[in-house]
């Protein structure tokens, strides 16, 4: 027997179209050092390598791509300690020559593509970029230029390889695309070669990669050289991704792509953290802020602590479940006190997108306060409530809608609850958004005087999920009243989630356009 339940919602009907996003590398989640490059470093828990070295696996994100670095550190065993890296480092170096090993992060132009600041440096074979789009996407193009290190060898040579002067001397960059079904396709980019004369890429050059096909989930980079002594370096920027249509949501922010130690949380322990204003996971950018001298942070952070109890402020990163949604390690933490101002999540797709929703639970700190009270906030009693208000803004900064979600609702004794598990928040009624503003309010105080700790924990931001049945009463939406939906309105037509008109109701999500101008979502199980 089919179960049918209704929720009247504001919903932006999807339109079939191509959507392009560009990973400019200006929006990465890393902090550059004083020499203006980032090559991973000692992040996370290392593995032991073949020579006893410690290998740290690091990653960075930009838009819908994730790049990878292996940072190898050899402890001092009587021969001195040393370290090296391989993969895709990030650089903001403006030098154009190779004077020493610090200059391995230079390119021969001295800036990123299209006069930008940041670019990626590839060093070594078999390193990859992941495309964080469900089912993969078409990689239309990227910009390429030679590194200063490689060109020093090409033009002058060094003790390992002579300058390029003989027919057949070459360095090529092979780009292999792995599709969602496991098949591969390859394209070769000629960085430099000598035939009758030397030719090489002298400036940022846009390379068409569309022949690699659709549904690409990974790009792997390898080098083809005539001599093993040629330095295996290249620089890339502005990776252009084309998704199937405008309804394709950005890559889900799972927070698993953020480097963090076990049973730990986002750093607020160094002065460098004071400079951080955002971090990126999946296809979303989360505002954040830190005050090192006060050990204070606000807006959004991330953690992976599994203890779910609260004793003091050291435990402010914990959630009441203990761990991420569906058994995952990392999760997001929100702290949206009114005196810090509203917290924003930005959709990295150029024109925004429909954000399906995310999973939420109470912070261990907030849950402890709601159920026991503390020295500042009261223990909740019947009539009390604590909620988030989520406001959508389109690319022109117009409000698209508002959603209220109650993390605790004791207004009705028959259905009173305080959330202590992971629940899904549906945001599809907000339509296509570029930004989401998140604010907290409570029955215990208002404005700057809210006494309830305004924390919450969240995960899989941008994931699809299923509305909880109304009788469980875990969600209240302000969008219904705002739209003046008429219960007696008649249906004018039905559509599936991609916007195609359908005949009658089908299993799954059905979008029904009503005669009063409202739109209703009907889910059939």
Structure at a glance:
By secondary structure, this protein is mostly beta strands. Helix content is 4%, strand content 40%. The protein is elongated and about 85 Å long.
Describe the structure.
There is one protein chain. The chain is mainly β and 525 residues long. Helices cover 4% and strands 40% of the residues. It contains three helices and 34 strands. It has a 15-stranded antiparallel beta sheet that branches. A hairpin with a 2-residue loop joins strand 17 and strand 18 (284-291). It is elongated, with a radius of gyration of 26 Å.
First-last Cα distance: 9 Å
Largest sheet, if any?
A: 15 strands, antiparallel
- Total strand count, please? 34
> Which outline best applies?
elongated
Rg calculated over all Cα atoms: 26 Å
Low-confidence stretches: 1-17, 469-489
Portion in helices: under 10%
Quick check: average pLDDT?
84
> How much β-strand is present in the residues?
35-45%
Helices and strands, with pairings:
Elements: E1 4-9, E2 19-23, E3 37-38, E4 47-48, E5 54-62, E6 65-74, E7 82-91, E8 119-123, E9 127-131, E10 138-145, H1 148-155, E11 170-179, E12 184-194, E13 198-200, E14 205-208, E15 216-225, E16 233-243, E17 278-281, E18 284-291, E19 296-303, E20 331-335, E21 343-347, E22 353-354, E23 357-361, H2 364-372, E24 385-393, E25 399-409, E26 417-418, E27 423-426, E28 432-433, E29 435-442, E30 455-459, H3 479-483, E31 491-495, E32 501-502, E33 508-514, E34 519-524
